[in-house]
Amino acid sequence: MPTCTAKEEQVLWKSSVHSRGSYNAAIADQTANLAIRGLLLFLIGVFLALVLNLLQVQRNVTLFPPDGFASIFSSAWWVPPCCGTASAVIGLLYPCIDRLLGEPHKFKREWSSVMRCVAVFVGINHASAKVDFANNVQLSLTLAALSIGLWWTFDRSCSGLGLGFAIAFLATLTTQLLVYNGLFQYTSPDFLYVRSWLPCIFFAGVITMGSIGRQLAMYEYKVVQEKTHQD
Amino acid sequence: MTVREKLRQKISAGFYWHGLLCASYPVPIILFTAVCILTCCYPLLKLPLPGTGPVEFTTGVRDYMVPPQEPSGDPGERPDWYRGPPVAYIQQVLVKAAVSPWDNRLVPVDAFRSPLGRVFSLLDEIRNHVHSDSSGVRSLEALCLQVTDLLPGLRRMQALLPEHGCLLVSPGNYWQNQRELFDSDPDLLRTVQQYEPKGLHTSATLKDLLFGVHGKQTGVSLNSRNRVVTYTITMALRHYDVRFLGSLRSRLKQLHPSANCSLREEHMVHVHFKEEIGVAELIPLVTTYIILFAYIYFSTRKIDMVKSKWGLALAAVVTVLSSLLMSVGLCTLFGLTPTLNGGEIFPYLVVVIGLENVLVLTKSVVSTPVDLEVKLRIAQGLSNESWSIMKNMATELCIILIGYFTLVPAIQEFCLFAVVGLVSDFFLQMLFFTTVLSIDIRRMELADLNRRLPAEAGMPPAKPGPLRPRETPPPPRPSPHTITLQTPAFRNLRLPKRLRVVYFLARTRLAQRIIMAGTVIWIGILLYTDPAGLRTYLAAQVSEQSPLGGAGLPHLAVAPVFPGGDPTGTLNVLPQADPTPALSENLSQGGRVPPAPDPERSSAGVSSSQLRVLHCESHVLCRRYISILPVIPVTFHVTPREALETRHPQDTRHAPPLQTDPSPNALPHGAPVQTDLTLYKVAALGLAAGVLLVLLLFCLYRLLCPRNYGQNGVQHGRRRRGDLPCDDYGYSPPVSEISPLLLRGHNMDIECLASDGMLLASCCLAGQIRVWDAQTGDCLTVIPNHGLRRCSSSGGWEHRDGWDAGAVTDLETLGGAEGQDAGGAGYPVRRRAAPSRPTLFGDQPDLTALIDTSFGQQPPSQAPSASSGFDFGGLVERAYLEHEPSVSPVFSAPPPQPVQRRRSLGDQPMAPTDWDSAVWALELRGNLIAAGRSSGKLEVCLWDAVEGSLRCSNEDGVSGITALAFLNNRIVAARLNGSLDFFTVDINKPLGLLQYRGGPGRGSMPPSPCYSSDDVISCQLTRSVQCAHQKPITVLRAAAGRVVTGSQDHTVRVYRLEDSCCLFTLQGHSGGITAIYIDQTMVLASGGQDGAICLWDVLTGSRVSHVYGHRGDVTSLVCTTSCVISSGLDDLICIWDRSTGIKLYSIQQVLGCGASFGVISDSLLVTGGQGCVSFWDLNFGDLLQTVYLGASSEGQGVRQLVVLDNAAIVCDFGSELSLVYVPSVLEKLD
């Protein structure tokens, strides 16, 4: 049939054109994709930081020096951008490490699971802010258990655990330094200058942001896969 | 391991049986589950409403002490807010006033004018009351709460509310507390009502505020029944001075003794307003809810492959929510009162419980084999996932148990809720969701059954390869124009406009959205117009600026806020609202002391709307409370004479009929009559509205109902030439590149058409049969009528052949002439009836040489067999030849057997006198043409490249052959007398060569063998069913080894082809059968003279569906996998949904062209029109294209239309055939 051959030819032609241009396009795509992902993660980080700070402020956990912005954001102006940047870095780092290690993260890779993870993270924050614990040790232990549970439920990868620990440690250190320099302070520090549950919160946050970042990277991965199929 | 395996097997088996149970008894199980849910939720009714409602605390009056600022002693009894002095003490004076005894001279206005007037004296009394004792002189001025300014939101009531001085509220405020204004007011009711807001309001109004009791209990209306007026005078005091209040109480009681009032005086109610949640605190809450909804959204999005995605998603959400409710209910039932803020922990509970199991279940069930029974599918799906479900649940329970041992009360409570929620969620999943899923799956099966099965069974075979046995490639034709069918989702239906509107509405869910938006707007308006709501907002602003929670509450800070906010709350919460009926009963019946109403209990009955009002006030009284002192009851008895004295001259105008009515009995009836009248009015209005609504719905139904059963659908205007079809977006397909091929040669109207995809046989009224190549349009053979055949050896044919020979020599001139002819025609229809000149030569250069030689050698050597006689056909033929110099079959004949051409018939014995017998039926299979004649003779002609020779004939029958079916090597002939003859065509191949041609395209015909001219073909009557039908057989169709006949005796019979055994007699029509359709997939449809269309199951002989489609006969019927297309004498083509029998739409045909339509693919329909054919998209009723067959044939309708396998359409209009190549249909499948 002449039509069939014509169609086939068209398809061939199209695919040849596609393969010729796809290399350049793929590189451009990748950069754009990275930027978009970074931006999204940044925004999510900023949003979560604002909300969770609000929780902390309501309980008078943190005391920021008075500022013009304080009434609006209920925290210092530099906190949300910092959190956003950190979350963007973490969210991009996780899939990157996955790729370096050679296997993409496959456990529960869907948006509903990610949303569940975020909800649990907010819940942990909520608990740390609102629930009355008998003492700080109990609070810290509970939150630590919750954080590990979060990792076990939604991540279960060694790279995630290691990265989580490392970043939590670094972040706690940074907070110590910040408090030491007097940028803000906690109302009742029990762990040097900060609260003892801070590492747990950081750990849970790292796991959550990593989960989001991995899920976002799934799209790129899928696109690349499709492209290789096409070629 | 073995234990685990055993456990696993047991669980799996248990789930299997459970799934069977659920799928078998869906309705009882759902009912049972609903009962369970309701039972478990029942304790929730006792819980206080969520939110920050006021809390009450009652203490005794006698030993009242201002509670200390710091809590001390036993904190168990006292709520923790009960400390420090209250914001205010509220003292109310409840006034009951009545005119007694009632006099006939009085008008209804008198019932409340005079009692209301008493308020002014009472006010004076209260204002001027001075209590003096050893500690000094105290008056109200010194004690009361001072008002300095009004809230901005209450500016419009500036005239009514006290702006300065004491906060003293009474009905007197309507008249600025001035007796003169009251006396001169001609219409009290209007004054009272003019401040009432219009519309539906849930909060307290100004009337409630000033009267202090609920609006209906005031008794200030024209038709109050017991004529007791109730109102209160409310004062707010800053300090609690027992002695002043005691003296006021005794003074008032002394002045206006209310003898039978039984209100107890020893209780003091403290009302506390909880702290309102601020906007800042709401943000995290809102965030968690947003995350929750995102979670639910992403979860339910994964539900797939089910009938109703939304339904299942809803069921999943219902499962989770009701399991939560059940858990809370159960916990309350067992004595656990929730102390956590429900709204806060709720999202986390949902997340913990999760929708995962539900999704896993759905996926598992959906992935079971489709062809299983629904029960088994459910059971299998359940048992497949049972292990993982149980494992997950165990894990979650473990985690929660661990959480329980944290020994933090809040977390323990959360864990308890979560455990109960998990268990109840499991219960609901197993019972409720599984059952819903089974119902859904069953629905899907029902809906898809009809659609899917035939599609699988009737899958058309692969496109055939090149069809022609000849080696010659088809001549290049302009590459076919392509009609692109878009995917259905992107297209609008070319259905009636109103239908499209409805589809649009349905697609965008406009109605739901409008309703939703309307609700939101309504709520917004309500909030905006609601004074309480407004005040909430304003008060929130005020309280933000000046934190009221502080200890040292400055006087001026409270005062601006207070007058607007407080009275509403206090007045409404007063327990006096409830005792009023009892009191009024006392007054009207006079004497009997009713059981004392308990203010405490009655205050519990404060309606929810009042609660809401109080809730709104809580900003003002943030973390503070007010104390309500026992009321002071006051009773007035107004004599009729006093009432008459205070009457305003205009009062009598309001109810003259009552006054003029002399009958004493009329008065008690007056009020009911009035209420009845309003009742009637309301009823009439409601009735009218209902009727209007019904009419509106009826109109909508008539307008929009897609199922216009049995009625003509929308009539599609046929497009005129030049009127390009275009869709909604203004896109019109490119102008037709489809140029029809005209096949000319017949000189009378064409009667029969037959085709097997490759070849096309046509027979005209003169009995001449022509065979055409369906690909090129060349006329391959002409088989004249018998008479014609006899005379073919006479001069006429001689002449013709001679001319032929000459034509070969004059080839160049002929071609030129032809070119001129084509050029002069002026429209792009290529004439191909005659030898196709230039293109053919371009294609087959080698052939021309052969032809040249062969014709040159043997033109005159055709042996003439002497026979003579006048032959009309011959004359006509000759005339025709002269008229049109191009004679058909010359060049297309391949050279090898030129000798045999047409002359070979000479050796066959011919019936001498049947020249008048017309061909009534024509069938074509392979190389054989079967023709049934009116004389009852069956002829089988063999056609091959050269000859149109009659190979055998059978003259057993006497009755005319009305219909023929040719399948494999069997021919079935139906006769006029109702008998059915089965013939077998036997081929004795001398060479044993049986070459099969490629299977034709649409799967309707099996590959038929090619017969060569050397074969000896015999046609034997194998069986004759004499009385197949009582009346003439009108239709005969054969497919899939079945022969179906339809007759005028209203029945359809199904025969097996092999042994001609009658399988079924199908009865169901009330008229003769006029159309039958059967195809390879055993779909049988029949249409009758009654306009009915029946669908039958060929395997069982049962009627599947029955629709009345046409006025008059059904003339033609075609089924596709999804629909049935019928045409009738009413020139309407109707398209029916095959599974439901609903008419989808109909196409109005031109008069006389009703029966001409054909289906090219499952989605392309061709209809014939006035000199044109139109292509329609079958699924949507879109007119895709109209092709005009020729300029001259404008007025002639297409009467027959045959769809060939290579998607060419042959239409017959008049004596011409037209070959239209259908644009290749490209279906975009997404």
Automatic annotation (TrEMBL), chain A:
InterPro entries per UniProt: INSIG_fam
Cellular location(s): Endoplasmic reticulum membrane
GO-annotated biological processes: cellular response to insulin stimulus; cholesterol biosynthetic process; SREBP signaling pathway; SREBP-SCAP complex retention in endoplasmic reticulum
Pfam family, one: INSIG
Membrane-topology descriptor: Multi-pass membrane protein
Transmembrane stretches, start-end: 34-55, 75-94, 137-154, 161-180, 192-212
Predominant location category: endoplasmic reticulum
Entry superkingdom: Eukaryota
GO molecular function: lipid binding
Alphabetized UniProt keyword annotations: Cholesterol metabolism, Endoplasmic reticulum, Lipid metabolism, Lipid-binding, Membrane, Steroid metabolism, Sterol metabolism, Transmembrane, Transmembrane helix
GO cellular component: SREBP-SCAP-Insig complex
Coiled-coil residues: none
Family affiliation: Belongs to the INSIG family.
PANTHER family listed in its UniProt record: INSULIN-INDUCED GENE 1, INSULIN-INDUCED GENE 2 PROTEIN
Function: Mediates feedback control of cholesterol synthesis.
Name of the protein this chain belongs to: Insulin-induced gene protein
Native source species: Scleropages formosus (Asian bonytongue)
Gene label: INSIG2
From TrEMBL, chain B:
Subcellular locations according to the entry: Cytoplasmic vesicle, COPII-coated vesicle membrane; Endoplasmic reticulum membrane; Golgi apparatus membrane
InterPro entries from the UniProt entry: Beta-prop_SCAP, HMGCR/SNAP/NPC1-like_SSD, SCAP, SCAP_N, SSD, WD40/YVTN_repeat-like_dom_sf, WD40_repeat_CS, WD40_repeat_dom_sf
Region of interest: Disordered: 455-484, 569-607, 644-670, 886-910
Entry annotated with the keyword Glycoprotein: yes
One Pfam family cited in the UniProt record for this chain: SCAP_N
Membrane recorded as keyword: yes
Intervals holding WD repeats: 1066-1106
Protein name: Sterol regulatory element-binding protein cleavage-activating protein
Organism annotation: Scleropages formosus
Gene that encodes the chain: SCAP
